[in-house]
Batch of 4 targets.
Target 1
Amino acid sequence: MKLRVRYFASLREALGPGEEVELAEGATLGALRDALVGRGGRHAEMLARGRAVRGAVDQVMADDGQPLRDGAEVAFFPPVTGG
Amino acid sequence: MGGCRRRAGRPGLPLQGTMPCMGAAEPNLSRATARVAIQTDDFDLGAEVSALRAGDPGVGAVASFVGTVRDRNGGAAGEVSALELEHYPGMTERSIEAMIDEAQRRFDIRAARVVHRVGQLAPGDQIVLVVVASAHRGAAFQACEFLMDYLKTQAPFWKKESTAEGARWVDARVADDAALARWGIAAGNAACAAPGDAAGAAGAAAR
């Protein structure tokens, strides 16, 4: 399935605004993050497990276990600091 | 800075039939003004309060909160010369709409509005406004604080400060997660490292 991945704030500065990612059907948000980390380089550094990164699926905050569907908009970003 | 104004209803005024767009019984659903605004422009607290309670004679209390840009963040006065606010267009509006829905489920409020600025701001500028109208003050006070606690940890905004040493992303505060926890909601924001990764969680908390 094809996913549209977006990055914000410090992740956007390091990885760019976003990219298209191909992933096996039925993958979860956590699996996507692991796949991106598996690329190495800046992705591995910025999305490393243990680093404070939040995710959203189709513009709703989501946990690692959230299943993804084809065409989903997935975002990764640091903890939010509005208000 | 926060302000609160209370005003008695005006019995006897035939307002019920004078609202051209009021078809529904719920005053919120047919308001002309959107509940959420994300904008670069400044806002006017007085105008926002007037608009929120206009046409609803059942409103007896209005509570508001205004957040402003500080010139410091744990350091010396004047250390922060500017603040840039990034957000996630679409998700921002959607998440705040959901927060207002939740506030309406939890508290007996009649209307609410949230305005959040993005882009380049300077010390002293207004950043965020929450206004809540209700029949009695308790619900307005509570819903106003609830909305701010929720927004701090669940709305996708990010602050970047400019200082003499360069620009830096502002760190999330564990205290903000704790503020939302008082309402029985786990924020998972400042301490959002992978579960079971103690080193990562400690690192996130210490940053």
Note: The mean pLDDT of chain A is 97.
Target 2
Amino acid sequence: MNWKTTALGIAAILLLLIILSAINVVFGYTAEYIKITIPAAQLVNVALYGVIYEDKVAIYLDIPGTVSSQNVAIERTMTVPTLNLKATISITMSSVTMSGVGISAWNLTSTSGTLSGVTMTVEPAPTGVQMNINSGTMNNVVAFAWKVVASQIQYEGLTAKITLESL
Amino acid sequence: MAFNSVVKAFYSFMGYVLRFFLVLWNLKKYTLTSFFALVMFMWLVVPHLTPRMYAVIVLQLSILVTTLFLMFLLTGVFVVGGIEDGSIPLENALRVFIGALIANVIVLATLCYLGLMLMGIAPPPQSLPALIALANAMEATPIVALAITIPAVVGYFLLKDKWARFRAKVPFWGSYLGILASFLYLYPIMRDPPIWYFAGFRFFSIAGVTIIVSIFPLAYPREAALKACGLILPLIGFLSWFIVWGGMTLGSILCVLAGATLHSWRPREVKTFLATKPSSTKPHT
């Protein structure tokens, strides 16, 4: 094994992660989905698309402005077959401010909130229903996302923990 | 002068560690069997004997014991196997063993830190991209560990000389790690096929390029081709972060390792003086 190539390659990857952390950019795909919980979000100029392709439908939430919220959680669940356990890794942030957010999700819910300036239109495939919201507040937003992009994200109180549940 | 004596003492100490390891490896029929029995006991029996409130600790301990078992097995198969078939010259054996030991210590330290972090004892890195990358890697680690262990163990224990001759003729490990990396690039859409419809092109394109660059040296194992592929693969590994978020993190790391392995591979003659008796490696005094 060429140790110089190995060291350079791994150092480049670590450097990239450090740079992404420093400039507060997050983007990525995940296997299955991650569960994102935003307890209260003030939203401005939000666009929600129901994307249709062949027989599959997904939701794309586009928030170009800034979103601030407390206690945001990102959860990832895995199964441990021999122990019959479901392991959930939770990454929580006590305070988050993010902008340029794009969430591609299979499911997106909010228990309460107020919306104003709502326009709903139907576009030809692959864009289906399109909903534009000029401003609003959405409480307890839960998204089961498979791709998340945040061009700027600032956070405080980052914690990670694992919880186990019986299957 | 003092530095030289410290280095000498370190090498001398590592020489004793290598001898101790070789003694254990020569008794592999017993050491591997008992180690494997302990792993099975940790996964299948201990969880049913301990209260649910200790489930996290039991899980971490089971992972730790399994990792130690795999480290012992893979160090034996790769390092002792390499000495036996002549791919690691005897004069380099100690240096390679120290390299393997350092790699094992890094893996073990990372694992212990992750375990302590997830139990809330150690602080997490204050970086969201790093935490997401770690969570992705944790999901893919069992598959990667199995995928590396199976051919190494089957080749060493069952195919013996044929395995050594095959690896002397073609750059198996470099290509195999590259193929494994391309599989990890496709992992998210294999777990969740509907993503094909929305982002399939980028997944298939990077996995396709990686698989072509990985398989090419098997068909054409010439120095120029190996050097070219050995440089292209680490570059793909780095770029994969912008296309498929590093293929569960481990995809990009395996791509770098595949390139490094291909870059330094050379065809060689198999020395048969040790390869004929793989079980009779004695510590060199």
Note: Residues 140-279 of chain B form one domain.
Target 3
Amino acid sequence: MHIPDGILPGPVTAAGYAATAVVTWYSVRKINQKENPRQDIPKASLLTAAFFVASWIHIPVPPTSVHLVLNGLLGAVLGYFAFPAILIGLFFQAVMFQHGGLTTLGVNAVIMGLPAIIAHYIFRIRRFGNQESRRKTGIFGFLSGAVAIGISVAMFVLILLTNIPADLDIGTERAALYTLAIAHLPLIAIEGVITLLLAVFLQRVRPRILDGV
Amino acid sequence: MHMKWRIITCIIFILILDLVLPIKALAHGVKIEYTVNMAIEIIAAYDNGEPMGGAQVTVYAPDEPSSPWLTGVCDDRGYFSFIPDTSKPGTWDVQVRQAGHGDIVHIPIGEDMVVTGGTGGYTALQIVLMAACFIWGSVGTALYFSRRRRA
């Protein structure tokens, strides 16, 4: 899911940085509009650590393996804090683990961060209508986790499919990308379930954490 | 006398024939030539240890870094080997790529050649230590911002 250095052409990485700058600015603006912007920093900080470590957790999906991303979970629980949290997590993953790259940091932030914001809005749907129930929290928690990773995989594959260099055997690379996309299908369900469990748990144990989102 | 000249002529003819026609059975000289070819072996694997079987390899020579000098595919073990052109000293770049994942290794060929090398500079212990520092930093930040203000 993390695009490393040397895979994408320069203009695409520059466009990624430009898009990331705009979304980060917008996210910080939205955070500052809150009554107490510092209130959610502890939550964001801990979930940044969770996002950072999640890429170490590999799930074997023969013939390959996939790792957790948790961008939907961050979006659901953090709201607009999710984008800067993911950006910071990606930066340290690139520097420490060579997971992703510094030139592709912008593109990766868009791939994982934008779906997190979408997940935030999906999770908010639980508030419409009647009383907020545990079932609704569970359903929209699952959807936010599943949809976010689904969109991320689609964006990842689309960006790479449109930027295969002419030197490579395009058919082979395309087939490898489709295989990778199929291997991520179980992850959509797994991330949905993880977000569901955490959302329901938080609502039962400490509902205040979900108040702001 | 006539007979003697005939024998001498016959011997001279055989000698000339022997020099002119290469008769294999009489060739006892051996000539061996050798050239040292240095092959570069590459083993590509994902960071969880899984080999990059079927990954595409692109080799770039130092004099032409924009167009590939050689392309190929890793075998099931993620193994690929090639013999570089030693008349082109400098840094050879080898990219291994599969489904958007991959890396480039820079291999110096010439005077400052090294026998082994690779990408991924940190040991497992260093990575664990750095990750622990990051997690502690995050927890510390969370604790700092969640502290209760004194009245």
Note: The radius of gyration of chain B is 33 Å.
Target 4
Amino acid sequence: MQAANDATTAILGKLDGFRGASRFTTWAYKFAVLEVSVRLRRRAWSTRRVALDEVSWGRLADAVPGTEQALEERQLLAAVRRLVETTLTNRQRSVFLAAVADEIPIDVIAERTGSSRGAVYKTLHDARRKLRDSLVAAGHLEAE
Amino acid sequence: MNENLRDRLLGRGARDPGCEACFEVLDQYAEALLRAEDVVRLFPQVVDHLAGCEACREDTEGLLAALRSGPSGEPR
């Protein structure tokens, strides 16, 4: 109920921004969905301890199958792991490992670090760009 | 190369506009998708962002589910 009230408040507060580029209901739904989904993700993680300095690569490493076809993927993953340690700032490393390796939702990372979803994603985006540039320089990846 | 793994690790690079810019046009993107339009051509930045952002991908799926089950009928 609280989520519905907050969604309604969010929609009313954004009314001036409606430009008619979509149906009004579609435009309004996106605010409601955002409000509810952020709450659900935060609630799902509310009882779980989130230690941004203790994340692991375990689940991501398990996602790469042990076939010959996956050799390239394992090499990429190994290169990324090295570069995460050597090229990223502490903040970028924490966010990257939490969001990518440990799959902690960025809403939850934002809540636990007193930041915003956009700011957390910007940190993740900058970390990925730095990793891409380093992978290209090392010949692991083709330039865009 | 498994693009899902690469996207998950590295995202889609410079064209990714971030969560806020993606959210700005998410309603238009969702309607275009429901009309079976070519969203890769129409909204390349949104497509790239969703490939690397799990939270926005979930929100988009939620919006699409709401639109498919909502009272407003077919997207225009």
Note: The mean pLDDT of chain A is 85.
